[in-house]
Amino acid sequence: MSHFNKAEQDDWMTVYLKYLLFVFNFFFWVGGAAVMAVGIWTLVEKSDYLNILASSTFAVSAYILIFAGGLVMITGFLGFCAIIREQRSCLSALSEELKQHLTQTLTENYAVPGKTHITHSIDRLQQDFKCCGSNSSADWQHSVYILSVESSGRVVPDSCCKTVTFKCGKRDHPSNIYKVEGGCITKLEQFLADHLLIMGAVGIGVACLQSCGMIFTCCLHRRIKMDSY
């Protein structure tokens, strides 16, 4: 029953992310279309002024607007296609690549000379997410560090311990280390999913602000134009 509920929740999250990205791409595409339209309008309606301007900055600016708007529209269109087609194979490949890369990093690079930054990152990952190993604590059995004499008999790094003390990694009992189902990769994927929601929401907010700015700019331009008559 719990597995069914989890699968249902994952499906709901996928649908939510899909439509969130769809809405963001819509605003993104509209923003690009607006920018491109302003550039074209500038060249068409104000082309008579270009011949008498000493500098080509005005024309170049208009062409930049058209190029930038077109690029944004193409990017937004590709985003629509990717969302509509639901390229699950690409997403699955990305998730699998993440798992393989993390497992390889744990087994080959942890506590290796010249890889201090990786060691620190893994230690922090395990402590922050309260996990041990990529998929489970058993992943550390194949680690270069654990198999070396430098481990001093540890079966897992000390950062796997619930309370980190010197050589606490010698004992891998659940009362001593974090034994989380799915390991660190599950926690990391959830972390990325949560932040994707935040980034999507921020992106929509920025797109809305840009759209409002465009509307206010058009209203101001219209008002100035009316006052000039």
From TrEMBL:
The chain crosses the membrane at residues 20-42, 62-84, 196-216. InterPro entries: Tetraspanin/Peripherin, Tetraspanin_animals, Tetraspanin_EC2_sf. Its main location: membrane. GO terms for cellular component: plasma membrane. It is found in: Membrane. The keyword Transmembrane helix applies. Belongs to the tetraspanin (TM4SF) family. This is Tetraspanin. The gene is TSPAN11.
